[in-house]
Amino acid sequence: MKKRVLTTRESLPGRGLHRLSEAADVVAWPGNGKPGPADLAALAPGVSGVLALGNDPVDGALMDAAGPGLRVIALASMGFDNVDRAAAAERGIVVTHTPAVLAETTADLAFALILAARRRLGAATASLADGGWDLFRMHDYLGLDVHGATLGLIGYGQIGRAVARRAHGFGMRVLHHDPYAPDDDLSTSVGLAVLLAESDVVSLHVPLTEETRHLISVRELAAMKPTATLVSTSRGGVVDEEALLLAVREGRLHSAGLDVYEREPMGTELSPLVAEEHVVTLPHIGSATEATRAAMVDLAVDNILDVLAGRPARTPLPGSPATPGVATGTAGARADATGARADATGVRADATGARA
After folding, report:
1. Which residue of 3, 141, 176, 352 is 20 to 30 Å from 223, comparing CA positions?
2. pLDDT tens per residue across span 31-68
3. Does residue 176 carry a catalytic annotation?
């Protein structure tokens, strides 16, 4: 008899869902919008696995609605902040994500944001579209150079290293702050205070945890150069958006490039950052290429099929068991505090302690 698996979307890139439906009875959330916790809980009774996106709510109530047969929750994302990891650990449920397959694609986008924000491409494009390009003026759309600048990476995991490789093609000096990553041939490890003070571009590559929430706030922005650019392709909550907005508006920070926000998706209630001339904003598309999104779904499906077949999961969350039935209390939910990593770097208390 086939196992039942809940998927939070009826359609996903690639053929992963097709493979899953061949091996399991798939029940899918039929709505067009984002499902809420109650929507998913109503479909969950009797399922052995859940395939969810990174921003779908996966809480203890959903796990309880599924019942004791729930063995695996597979995320088609690298981030995992919307999953109640403590609840999963207490129930012995394997939780997986999709590292590695999206690192290069996300690094491409991070560097695109660096270029767009530093060179003010958004403002220039908007002026052209509005008919404002009526004369060649030497002072129009002046940005700042990327080549030869200093890049500071907060978090130096898979994506951070991929961005560092790209930076060397632009002749950039690269620094990183990550308590788990020493110097290498691409980058020099420094404290957070040094990185903020010396970098022309600061790019964020950390998971969202209690330790990294608002890692970049008033003091950190004040420590950066007024000519600096902040880029984030990690998670929106890592940046204090109100503090960032004020810093840009008051000219204390040159620019920012954002792919992630504290509130996602926005719909028509846009963040004021979207309208800022010196901020380039994108709708969380770091991994959005056909090949990468399909690979993410494939890996999530592989994790489900492996666990349901009695094999270890391929990519469990950092610090989490690869096989079900091993209750770990809340320890598995605190991978960031144990030294395990995802893009993951776990820049945490030692990072925040370097703020002063």
Report:
1. 141
2. 888 898 999 999 999 999 999 999 899 999 999 999 99
3. no
